[in-house]
Specification:
There is one protein chain. By secondary structure, the protein is of the alpha/beta class. The protein has 11 helices and 12 strands. The chain folds into 2 domains: about 160 residues, Isopropylmalate Dehydrogenase; about 160 residues, Isopropylmalate Dehydrogenase (3-Layer(aba) Sandwich). It is globular and about 50 Å long. The chain starts with a strand and ends with a helix. The protein binds 3-isopropylmalic acid (IPM) and manganese (II) ion.
Length: about 325
């Protein structure tokens, strides 16, 4: 079966790292067909298109979406993020953002290996709120956080299902229940109720500020972490920083119900400062593509790609891509 992949290279280094990811996928021998979608900041500046409903309808026809990075310094903040990236996450109901972290944190001699499950369709990301008296001394800005029982529960349930398949079988809830008492309480109660259905799985709770310390000082305590959209966003940059850098941090935006395609993208952004220099590390994009292969049921190919990324690489963007493709072909 040929998997139909929509490719959004996007802006900055996005197209560069995506090309290498596709090179490595090709080396697995898995049959894919790719269709390029010209979307992102550059496209917006060209003709105003961000993500029209008809383009979104096109994207729905694919088995998966591979995305490089979007965002351009010439476009005001939020336009592409909300109009393209978040629109895809919300409209395609990509309610899980799965971000694995493995490596040796600075100063440690023992490797860690954990996965952050970030809720991806709610929280402060929904854009609830507004502005009054803009630009005046009396300006008021509110930015709400939406947390639904359904949304929180399906995310927590996913984390427990994932942990049940892992060796350590442990889930940590990260939130800020001591201050965000309304949403925190909903998360905590739901977590405890779902946990009761998984008696073989261990649990813990960390406030998000404490979790930041543990990410640096004791990341080994974690197996699966489940958290809300904004905490997950911030924590996963830190996760990248203590796990070999943002250049190897991969992510999967998943619709586990499979009512539409899932989207796979590196955690990093478009890095316009290094575009065209060959300095971008394509490993994060390659590992995101490995997750795509796994989600498409190509387990063996996904394993081979991940195995190829274990040993260190060096060189330019395309040299690293070539080397990873060579390892996959040989593996
Ligand atoms: C991420 C990014 C996005 C987010 C931005 C680009 C909207 O930082 O995927 O982590 O905040 O979710
Ligand atoms: Mn982020």
């Amino acid at each position: 079966m040929t998997h139909k992949i929509a490719v959004i290279g996007g802006d900055g280094i996005g197209p560069e790292v995506t090309a290498e990811a596709l090179k490595v996928v090709q080396a697995t021998g898995v049959a894919i067909s790719t269709t390029d979608f010209d979307l992102g900041g550059a496209r917006f500046l060209k003709d105003g298109e961000i993500l029209s409903d008809s383009t979104l309808a096109e994207l729905r026809k694919f088995d998966a979406i591979l995305l490089g990075a979007v965002g351009s310094p010439d476009v005001p903040p939020g336009v592409i993020e909300r109009g393209l990236l978040l629109k895809m996450r919300f409209e395609l109901d990509l309610y899980i953002n799965q971000r694995p972290f493995a490596g040796m944190a600075p100063g440690h001699t023992k490797p860690h290996d954990f996965i952050v499950i970030r809720e991806n369709t709610e929280g402060p990301y929904v854009g609830e709120g507004g502005v009054l008296r803009r630009g005046t001394p009396q300006e008021v800005a509110t930015q709400g956080s939406v947390n639904t029982r359904m949304g929180v529960e399906r995310c927590i349930r996913y984390a427990f299902e994932l942990a049940a398949k892992r060796e350590r079988k442990h889930v940590t809830l990260v939130h800020k229940t001591n201050v965000l008492t309304f949403s925190g309480n909903l998360w905590e109660r739901t977590f405890n109720e779902v946990a009761a259905e998984y008696p073989g799985t261990g649990t813990a709770y960390n406030h998000v500020d404490a979790a930041c310390i543990y990410f640096v000082q004791d990341p080994h305590r974690y197996d699966v972490i489940v958290t809300d959209n904004l905490f997950g966003d911030i924590l996963t940059d830190l996760g990248g920083a203590v796990s070999g850098g943002i250049g190897v941090a991969s992510s999967a935006n998943l619709n586990p119900a499979r009512t539409g395609p899932s989207m796979f993208e590196p955690v990093h952004g478009s890095a316009p400062d290094i575009v065209g220099t060959g300095k971008a590390n394509p490993t994060a994009a390659v590992l995101s593509a490995a997750h795509m292969l796994e989600f498409l049921g190509e387990f063996r190919a996904a394993e081979r790609v991940r195995a190829a990324c274990v040993a260190p690489t060096s060189g330019s963007t395309s040299e690293v891509g070539d080397e990873l493709a060579r390892r996959v072909a040989a593996g």
